[in-house]
Amino acid sequence: MANKITNLFQIKYPIIQAGMVWNSGWRLASASSNAGILGLIGAGSMYPEVLREHIQKCKQATQKPFGVNVPMLYPDIDKIMDIIVEEGVKIVFTSAGNPKTWTSWLKGRGITVVHVVSSVKFALKAQEAGVDAVVAEGFEAGGHNGREETTTFTLIPMVREEIQIPLIAAGGIATGQGMLAAMVLGADAVQVGSRFVASEESSAHQAFKKVVVEAKEGDTQLTLKELAPVRLIKNKFYEDVQALYKTSPSVEQLKDLLGRARAKRGMFEGDLEEGELEIGQIAGLIHDIKPVAQIVNDLMQEFEDAKRAVSDL
């Protein structure tokens, strides 16, 4: 299935496994790449030398292309970028920052650059900065999110109308039917996160994976917009946040409640009460934990079945 994205990344299927903090280590990235899609290591939860170790292990586990996702708010970003170059990574997805900051530097070193956006405005800024493609992510997505709260199926055609570079849709996509719908709306590929959290190769804690597959409609909520909007599963920590909101808290009070390492406690260490359990709304359609290869096969089978069903309408 060849198109702009498969040609850009030299992959078999137009699917990107999202580089999620505490979920996307070398095992998930390499399994994804070996399954014919683009695997991404999530650098946001890694110290520089830990990232180097994950890149090296990923290179040993796959001969296929893979990349690194780098949130640009990372405190040691200079070291992260140097390691990416030193280890020969050829694809970088940037997020949570100005694409002008690193795009030229990376492209000057032969690296393909993709930037994650949540609005038409920032998609245009990314294109102007010279990125090779953009990921447009709707507010259904898990984890940190755009303040615009634009849904994926509204965002994708709006972005497609304004940019000329390849477009990857993200947010609320975990099935082949969703993949087809996003591509009909103008996407060249999809980025899938939550479905790969519930994979055998994900580095998420088993207790968190179990919560994901048990989640139903309405079990996630976007909150903490005063800090950085985040979609998470409702648990004790979420209820504590809502209780604090009733007191009209200051930003500092919200920061104090959030503290440090909430996401690690929830997703990586399995603290289902006090941890931050980041996942997308689409969790309500995820019912099992499978190997990555099976998830990719399911996505593509559903995609082909959906195409045939649409052609019969």
What would a concise description of this structure say?
With 313 residues, this protein is α/β, with parallel strands linked by helices.
Structural class: alpha/beta
Low-confidence stretches: none
**Could you tell me the mean pLDDT?**
95
Q: Total strand count, please?
A: 11
Which fold does the CATH topology of the largest domain refer to?
TIM Barrel
* Gap from first CA to last CA: 23 Å
Query: What is the domain tally?
Result: 2
Q: What's the gyration radius in Å?
A: 18 Å
- The shape is globular
Q: CATH top level of the largest domain?
A: Alpha Beta
- Helical amount among residues, as a percent range? 40-55%
Report on this structure.
This protein has 313 residues and is α/β, with parallel strands linked by helices. Helix content is 42%, strand content 15%. The chain is built from 14 helices and eleven strands. The strands form two sheets. An eight-stranded parallel β-sheet has the order 1-9-8-6-5-4-3-2. A three-stranded antiparallel β-sheet has the order 7-11-10, with no helix packed on it. β3, α4 and β4 (91-95) form a beta-alpha-beta unit. α8 (176-184) crosses α14. The longest helix has 20 residues, at 292-311. The relative contact order is 0.13.
Write the layout of secondary structure elements.
Blueprint: H1 4-9, E1 15-17, H2 26-34, E2 39-42, H3 48-61, E3 66-71, H4 77-86, E4 91-95, H5 103-107, E5 112-117, H6 120-129, E6 133-137, E7 143-144, H7 152-162, E8 167-170, H8 176-184, E9 189-192, H9 194-197, H10 206-214, E10 220-223, E11 230-233, H11 236-245, H12 251-258, H13 262-268, H14 292-311
Parallel strand pairs: 1-9, 2-3, 3-4, 4-5, 5-6, 6-8, 8-9
Antiparallel strand pairs: 7-11, 10-11
